[in-house]
Write a structure and sequence with these properties.
Layout lengths: L11 H21 L3 E2 L7 H4 L31 H11 L6 E3 L4 H14 L16 E6 L3 H9 L3 E8 L2 E2 L1 H10 L3 E6 L13 H13 L6 E5 L17 H8 L5 E6 L11 E4 L2 H12 L7 H11 L3 H27 L5 E3 L8 E5 L4 H10 L2 E2 L17 E4 L6 H25 L3
Helix pairs in contact: 1-13, 3-10, 4-5, 6-7, 7-8, 11-13, 12-13
The structure holds pyridoxal-5'-phosphate.
Length: about 425
């Protein structure tokens, strides 16, 4: 049902009629017993299948381009061919990259835990030298960053996200005033969940933040998980923080992450961490207590499969993903567009759409959806400690569902948004 006037302009009769119609629709769906899920930020089966032929990339040849036998132990920083792939993916020289195992999240944990207990610079600086330890968390943001941070006993201070990145004035004010603030989480391209891309100015300001910060061990944690995950090509450019940090003299304080989790196999990819030689040395030392070398066979497979054809491969993903994001946008704008009950993002890539409903309604909408068989990411998950102060943000993850499932799921979601908004609006009537 499409409307042409904002809900706030509806008369009492119009609201009551609308509510009755929406209630009927809701009860009908309840009877249908659907089981849908828009909470899974993972690639669909047809996406992972794009990399099935990677299996043939070894074909009995286990030596990388430098002659390393990938079947054996060693090469703790990863094989040269994988680091060259990291260069292609991250736009950072291979010499500044460690290619690791299948998870960048693991490497983020390695970096934060190392910063806490052993320091990243081979000197006396450790985050744990004084308590409390705090990190800036742009919100809405990635729930696993928050969970990781919390698990290490680090406090999180929210910073607002805008359409071109975090509010840098706020970030600067906080970091410069409090030496307990040791870093900031960033997802600079197709941010999780808003889908925004940091502007050149934000990148430049982020690169100098370690200098502005009161702490002398401040770290920009640059999780470029969606570096090449555009829907249109050539892809959108993100200014290089590596270059900006070199220019600003802060290279020791910027650590970047990426992985092929959403390029090849989410459960069997290759992850990368990039920084200055000093930081890589500290990480290598910690890693050497955990393993004798990464899975180099998988690294070689990836380097051979993706090397030189990354964009072509991402175009194949885009062909599968774009129609899904189109369904999300079309349904949101058709169903909610004129009612003025929600705002949402229209990302040009990545994995998520961020939906903001009227304050106080997100939890109610998520549980209304659950009641009729649609699982959404729990309201609040995009905020530290699971607490969205406005209770308004809902993360939509459209990638895993089929097109048909997504159509139905979006109808249900928008129905729940409308119904909750109408109920709320009726409450305001005299
Ligand atoms: C921003 C962000 N970083 C990291 C990850 C996980 O990456 P990995 O599979 O390399 O651990 C995700 C997955 O959703 C993500 O959205």
């Amino acid at each position: 049902m499409s409307q042409t006037i904002p809900l706030s302009d509806f008369t009492q009769t119009q609201l009551t009629e609308l509510q009755a119609g929406l209630d009927r629709e809701y009860e009908l769906i309840k009877g249908n017993r659907v089981a849908l899920n828009l909470s899974r930020g993972k690639p669909a089966a047809d996406q992972v299948a794009l990399s099935d032929s990677m299996e043939d990339a070894i074909a009995g040849d286990y030596f990388d381009s430098t002659g390393t036998d990938v079947r054996n132990y060693g090469e703790i920083r990863g094989i040269a061919d994988a680091r060259a792939l990291g260069e292609e993916l991250m736009g950072v020289p291979a010499a500044n990259i460690i290619a690791g195992g299948n998870s960048s999240l693991f490497l983020m944990h390695l970096v934060t835990a190392t910063a806490l207990t052993h320091g990243l610079w081979g000197d006396e600086r450790r985050w744990s030298n004084s308590k409390p330890v705090k990190i800036l968390a742009p919100v809405p943001g990635y729930d696993r960053h928050f969970a990781l941070t919390q698990s290490l006993g680090i406090e999180m201070i929210p910073v607002s996200m805008g359409s071109d990145g975090p509010d840098m004035e706020q970030a600067r004010a906080l970091a410069s005033a409090d030496p307990a603030i040791k870093g900031i989480w960033c997802v600079p391209k197709y941010s999780n969940p808003t889908g925004c891309i940091y502007s050149d100015q934000v990148v430049d300001e982020m690169a100098v933040l370690p200098d502005v910060a009161a702490a002398d061990d401040f770290v920009v944690l640059w999780d470029n998980a969606y570096a090449v995950h555009d829907f249109n090509f050539p892809g959108r450019n993100l200014k290089s923080i590596f270059d900006a940090a070199q220019a600003a003299g802060t290279a020791d304080h910027v650590v970047q992450f990426a992985s092929t989790s959403k390029i090849t196999f989410a459960g069997g990819g290759v992850a990368f961490v990039a920084s200055s030689e000093r930081v890589l040395k500290a990480l290598e030392e910690r890693l050497s207590f955990m393993m004798i070398g990464p899975d180099k066979v998988n690294q070689l497979r990836h380097a051979r499969f993706l090397g030189g054809r990354l964009e072509q491969h991402m175009q194949a993903h885009a062909a599968l993903l774009k129609p899904k994001f189109d369904i999300v946008e079309d349904t949101l704008s058709k169903q909610l567009g004129d009612l003025d009950v929600a705002q949402w993002t229209q990302p040009g890539g990545g994995y998520f759409v961020s939906l903001d409903v009227k304050p106080g309604l997100a939890k109610a909408i998520v549980s209304m959806a659950k009641e009729v068989g649609l699982t959404l990411t729990p309201a609040g998950a995009t905020y530290p400690y699971g607490q969205d102060p406005d209770d308004s943000n809902i993360r939509i993850a459209p990638t895993f569902a089929s097109l048909e499932e997504l159509q139905t799921a979006m109808q249900i979601l928008t129905l729940c948004v409308k119904l909750a908004s109408v109920r709320e609006q009726i409450k305001t009537l005299p």
